[in-house]
């Protein structure tokens, strides 16, 4: 009799668990970082910007507007409208060109010539729309460091 009561309770618990509403739909703040920076012959930078979706649902990234700072000074802006859908807890890369100011050009050239690192920060906004939701703006403030890529002239990773 005692065994039957526990079996019935276990079956009832399984039945109730089966009636749940499914996976939790969590929207988390996305992030972005420079994955690679290539200094071009004209002095502009081709940046591979890695956008990370930490949400449990797909997000459509529609607008990126980020200020790049090097040595605590604003160097340029990364602006793009990628219209890119990134799956849950995934990332993707977009390429954005920026024309840095003279201080940014000098800092990148110094890092490449010396084999040192280039510390940077990104701040600004990313607009994204959760799957079946309304567009939201997310503030971003992130620091990173890039180093010369061996065998790739003009490339920092």
From TrEMBL:
Annotated region described as Disordered, given as residue ranges: 131-157
Record organism: Lysobacter soli
Alphabetic keyword roster: Signal
Upper taxonomic lineage: Bacteria, Pseudomonadati, Pseudomonadota, Gammaproteobacteria, Lysobacterales
Record keyword Transferase present: no
Signal peptide per UniProt: 1-26
Domain Late embryogenesis abundant protein LEA-2 subgroup span(s) in chain numbering: 49-130
Domain of life: Bacteria
Keyword Signal: yes
UniProt biased composition (Basic and acidic residues): 131-142
Pfam families with a match to the protein in the record: LEA_2
Name this protein carries in UniProt: Late embryogenesis abundant protein LEA-2 subgroup domain-containing protein
């Amino acid at each position: 009799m005692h065994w039957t009561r526990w079996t019935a309770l276990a079956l009832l618990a399984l039945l109730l668990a089966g009636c749940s509403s499914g996976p939790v739909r969590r929207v988390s703040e996305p992030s972005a970082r420079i994955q690679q920076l290539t200094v071009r012959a004209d002095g502009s930078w081709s940046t591979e910007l890695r956008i990370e979706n930490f949400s449990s649902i797909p997000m459509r990234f529609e607008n990126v507007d980020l200020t790049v700072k090097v040595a605590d000074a604003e160097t340029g802006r990364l602006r793009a409208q990628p219209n890119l859908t990134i799956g849950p807890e995934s990332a993707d890369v977009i390429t954005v060109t920026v024309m840095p100011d003279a201080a940014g050009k000098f800092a990148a050239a110094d890092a490449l010539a010396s084999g040192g690192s280039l510390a940077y920060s990104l701040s600004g906004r990313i607009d994204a729309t959760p799957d079946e939701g309304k567009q939201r703006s997310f503030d971003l403030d992130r620091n990173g460091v890039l180093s010369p890529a061996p065998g790739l002239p003009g490339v920092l990773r």
